[in-house]
Write a structure and sequence with these properties.
alpha+beta, 18 strands, FAD/NAD(P)-binding domain, 4-stranded antiparallel beta sheet
Length: 432
């Protein structure tokens, strides 16, 4: 059967705004990028397709910041991520170990924090600087951060097209209930999670298929009995005493992988994952002491998709570069399941090959599959988002494209803003 097409009539699309920095995606990376750009004086717009900010950190119920340390007791992510932790803590909406316990291998301490999902991976274990938090409070604090910074927040808009002129993206095309609109932009941060802007602009990318899942929280469990259950490592305490977090929605993930950019495959996964959540609830009630009267208090409103497109940028950070300083490092991250594994993330991994005014942040930056397991985590997304937003603002102030920016200037600016970028990670290796 021949493919069928529809030729739409030509139309004029209204340009609703002209901004310095357009940030696409309101997850952790987009929040950080928008705040970093706006606080440095750039006219910044944040576009988000859903009705709230946070992405997987809120709507996906991945309500764990894994991790802000290197596994050896040293903090490696600070800046805007630490600011969010401080804001949540001030609201009584975060739980994490105090600094004096980071890196401590004491079994009782490790078990205490493991119960909250803050310690993962193979042993021997030590306490990590990871954070459990309340997703509603995260949403509100994210909104406060962007609005206080002067960001023009536009929820319920989805980028569906771009205008590209040479090595520049000049306009974004968005859809919403209001119809089709355009936004003129001098720079863009692609924090969409799926590298939507880069892909629409024709930049190269890799696409991974994934096993999706749906995180959920239960209420109504007998906490004392549940905590002593031999099944306890399959569910986790939250900041609320009477609630448990179930990270993958079921004892087993969805049996098949999907392309998270394919709406038909997403539809299948959404329906199947909700069925798996119900099956898991029935299993908990039947098999796990303390869950006899449990119920689903909240199920994630978006699938736990942590991988789809990754750009093939000016540098693809590889696992072989673990613990390797990068001269153009703009962020540093540990690994949530490995102790002492640190990646210095180079600015080149945020830059597409063929565009100079687009910076990519979050889980779709240019890394290989194994490094992605570290850089996709929420704290790392905060860090790359902060770097991307600051880069756009600084470049505009100097009359340059972000790709033309002196990275040393960007590094100094990030340090001044509280980001973790010690000389150890931004100096070139001794062999160079």
């Amino acid at each position: 059967m021949q493919p069928r097409t529809l030729t739409e009539p030509a139309r004029e699309t209204p340009v609703i705004a002209d901004v310095d920095v357009a940030v696409v995606g309101g997850g952790a990376a987009g929040i950080a990028a928008a705040v970093a750009a706006a606080r440095r004086g750039a006219r910044t717009m944040l576009l988000e397709r859903y009705g709230s900010l946070g992405g997987l950190a809120t709507n996906g119920l991945i309500i764990l910041l894994l991790t802000l340390d290197d596994g050896r007791g040293h903090q490696v992510i600070a800046g805007l991520c630490q600011e969010m932790v401080d804001r949540l803590a001030a609201r009584g909406a975060a739980f994490f170990p105090p600094p004096e316990e980071w890196g401590v291998p004491d079994e009782a301490l490790v078990e205490r924090y493991r119960r909250f999902g803050l310690v993962w991976g193979r042993g021997p274990h030590a306490v990590r600087y990871s954070v459990a938090y309340d997703p509603f409070e995260f949403k509100v604090e994210a909104e406060r951060m962007v609005l206080e910074a002067g960001v023009d927040l536009r929820l319920h808009r989805w980028v569906v097209g771009v205008r590209r002129e040479g090595r520049q993206v000049t306009h974004l095309v968005v859809e919403s209930k209001a119809g089709r609109e355009a936004i003129a932009c001098r720079t863009v941060v692609d924090a969409s999670g799926d590298a939507d802007v880069a892909a629409l602009a024709g930049e190269p990318f890799e696409l991974e298929r994934v096993h999706p899942w749906l995180w959920f929280r239960t209420g109504g469990a007998d906490v004392e009995r549940a905590d002593s259950s031999p099944h306890r490592l399959r569910f986790y305490r939250t900041v609320h005493r009477d609630s448990y977090l179930h990270p993958w929605g079921a004892a087993e993930r969805l049996e098949r992988t999907i392309d998270a950019t394919n709406p038909d495959e997403l539809t299948f996964a959404e329906v199947r994952c909700r069925a798996l959540v119900r099956e898991e609830l029935d299993r908990l009630r039947r098999d796990v002491p303390g869950f006899e009267r449990a119920y689903v208090a909240e199920a994630a409103s978006m699938l736990g998709i942590t991988e789809s497109r990754r750009i093939v940028g000016r540098h693809v950070l590889s696992r072989a570069e673990m613990d390797t300083p990068m001269e153009d490092a703009v962020a540093v991250t540990g690994h949530w399941t490995k102790y002492g594994a640190v990646y210095a993330i180079p600015f080149r991994s945020l830059l597409p090959q063929g565009l100079d005014n687009l910076v990519v942040a979050g889980r779709c930056i240019s890394v290989d599959h194994r490094v992605h397991h570290a850089t996709k985590e929420i704290p790392a997304c905060f860090a790359t988002g902060e770097a991307a937003g600051a880069a756009c603002a600084l470049a505009l102030a100097e009359g340059k494209a972000p790709a033309e920016l002196d990275v040393g200037r960007l590094q100094a600016e990030l340090r001044a803003g509280g980001a973790y970028l010690p000389d150890r990670w931004v100096s070139p290796p001794a062999s160079q």
